[in-house]
Amino acid sequence: MNPEITIIVPVYNEEANIDEALTLIRSHMLQLGERFEMLIIDDGSKDRTWTRIEACCRRFEELSAIRLSRNFGKELALCAGLEQANGNAVIVMDADLQHPPALFSEMVHKWRVEGYEIVECVKRSRGKEPLQKKWGSALFYLMLNRMSGFDLHGASDFKLLDRKVIQAWRDMPERNTFFRGMTAWLGFSRAQIEFEVPERIGSTSRWGLVSLVKLAVQAVTSFSSLPLRFVNFAGALFLCGAIVLGAQTLYRKLVGEAVTGFTTVILLQLMIGSVIMVSLGIVGEYISAIYNETKHRPRYVVRERITAKITEETEEI
Ligand code: UDP
Ligand code: MG
């Protein structure tokens, strides 16, 4: 028999937290009295996370684990989890307890009793984070909301999804996934629960600046073609300017005024040159996104897996 709820937790170098997190998540689920499984995806951790997970699998019969062959990034680790989940609903969360398991009962209530198909937990504030990350993400969401037309402000990856939603999500074939955006795109009936982000347990965030910028570019290219349209718009604008300037220069030449505007020429050169560079860059981003989609590579590679004892037992029956 399928579990009612699958909890999906992607982890990367979380050896210090994983025991505490899994124990807490499990105890909250046991309190709820639902049939559940926990699915941990080890995103190619370089520390002893996998050994810890193996030990936990021996202790907790509801625990399954997948180990990816290298670090594919949180988005793809999530993919692996969503593709393998068996539950009638899935709860996606982080391993650092910044997504409080105390919200489970309210999430499940909204799904089971009130009938919502997506329950999203929305950050009331962003908790303790370095200032540059706070500002960076505020700017990122402002831009993304404007461009994509989806309000992702305060969105987190802490969500409950009904089986129907997961099915629809699995039918989205893209390789470049952006979980928050994709669930917003899917629609369905959604409820929101606000929560205060607690401080991260164990060391610092697993996202470096480079991976955050990569995520931002991925989010924009997969959810908006506005930058491409902006290129066209800027192109048209500069063409108009060039026509007016060209006409003026021609007129001056015709009436015999000497052309003295050396500075203007240089400035124009620089301006047009930079606009072309930026435009090419934006076009390049989209081309590389298209290129990645057309490669049809598997999204992630599994190195090994452990199946929960509960699932094994039910399979035998
Ligand atoms: N994570 C992952 N792969 C990565 C980076 C992070 O699976 O390449 C996991 C990480 O272990 C954690 C979750 O994604 O469970 C969120 O990461 P983190 O708390 O570092 O991100 P933040 O809360 O700063 O967004
Ligand atoms: Mg975190």
From TrEMBL:
Keywords: Glycosyltransferase, Membrane, Transferase, Transmembrane, Transmembrane helix
Keyword Mitochondrion included in the entry's annotation: no
Compartmental location: Membrane
TM region(s), chain numbering: 230-251, 263-287
InterPro entries: Glyco_trans_2-like, Glycosyltransferase_2, Nucleotide-diphossugar_trans
Domain Glycosyltransferase 2-like: 6-157
Keyword Iron: no
Pfam families: Glycos_transf_2
Domain of life: Bacteria
Membrane topology annotation: Multi-pass membrane protein
Chief subcellular location: membrane
Protein name: Glycosyltransferase family 2 protein
Lineage of source species: Bacteria, Bacillati, Bacillota, Bacilli, Bacillales
